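Q: Could you fold this chain for me?
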Amino acid sequence: MALPTKKRRGNPVKTKAVERRYATSLRKIAAHCGTIINGFAPGDPTVLPTITHLLDAYSTVLHGWAVQTASNMLMDVALRDEKNWREHARDLSRGLREEIKSAPTGQAMRKLLAEQVDLIQSIPREAAKRVHRLTLQGIENSARANVISKEIRRSGEVAKSRADLIARTEVSRTATVLTQARAEHIGSEGYIWRTSGDGDVRHSHKEMEGKFVRWDSPPTLDGMTAHAGCYPNCRCYAEPVVPED
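A: Sure. Below is the predicted structure, expressed as structure tokens.
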């Protein structure tokens, strides 16, 4: 049976506030990247080594901060996921409730933490790659030099968009990963795919609404293979199907 829920009104693991806080933190990195890049003449190939060095160094220095920031996000989602299971598992047998409490989420949390730290540190690294690519394009096509210079100046804005994408995607993915860990621990073989139910749901995801998906067989949609909530910008979620007792 599916995990008992009240009238369905979106993902029961409320993560919007977590996503906003995470995005706010990651945007600070994007702003610093923009400050570093805009401190140099855009399109000048002689400053590329310096920009790359500074952004790579910034990425390295970020490690400790990234660990703390990612840990805060993960713990917040984990507590919300645990609360949701407690609230909606009252109709399950006592044995299953006890199993839910003892679910081994530690391994999933450690893997998620490593992935988050790498994503955070990738923001300045990706900004450096973008400046390098654009500068080379300006050299190859001098007629577009002004346009390319403007694009380089937008590097902070582009990094901010990447920060927002990471926050939206990773908070949702974290919720799904932790739900899966607890569900599989009590013998769940899969879940019901649920969408946010609004007009922004992409077509391929809308077609998944209400379908049963095995945990060991995530679907491939639009060229990507993942579970509900794990695609970029995905607001879908997994409604676990758990054993009767």
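A (continued): The CA atoms of residues 100 and 173 lie 20 Å apart.
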